Here is the input.
Amino acid sequence: MIAIVSACMLGINCRYDGKNVADAKLLKLVEAGEIVPIPVCPEQLGGLPTPRKQSEIIGGDGFDVIEGRAKVVTRDGEDITGYLVKGAKEVLKIAKLVKAEVAIMKNGSPSCGCGTIYDGTFSGRKVKGFGVTSALLMQNGFKVIDIKELKRDNR
Ligand code: SF4
Here is the structure.
């Protein structure tokens, strides 16, 4: 199964803090050949550095960002919406290029969030919603799942 995968879950140090969130179960499925991963980090592809400032969506979720109704800001108020939108478009190009069957995305992220994102107050509160890249992939017909769904499917 060819899968777009949030690179940080594969052990790539692309997170805002320069670290990763490698997922042992995911890596096992990769090693077993059940998943052929195409690692992507939309925030790096959008032109942001690593490490970088933490960001959250305010005024909605990724679908609202794409429609211009919400934006992505850092804790100190810098508007970085353009970087996340650019990154989402680059990931969409890659997904089309490799004919991805699924995208396995990191929940909580303003780019990769898949069912849950932070609420825009930088207080650790989560709300239902999707990150910008996950939303754009879904809008273009790609199946987007989070790691929990993958684990449910592959017990
Ligand atoms: Fe991981 Fe996505 Fe954040 Fe990149 S943008 S560090 S792939 S969650």
Q: What stands out?
A: Helices lie at 24-31, 42-45, 62-66, 81-97, 132-139, 147-153. The longest helix spans residues 81-97.
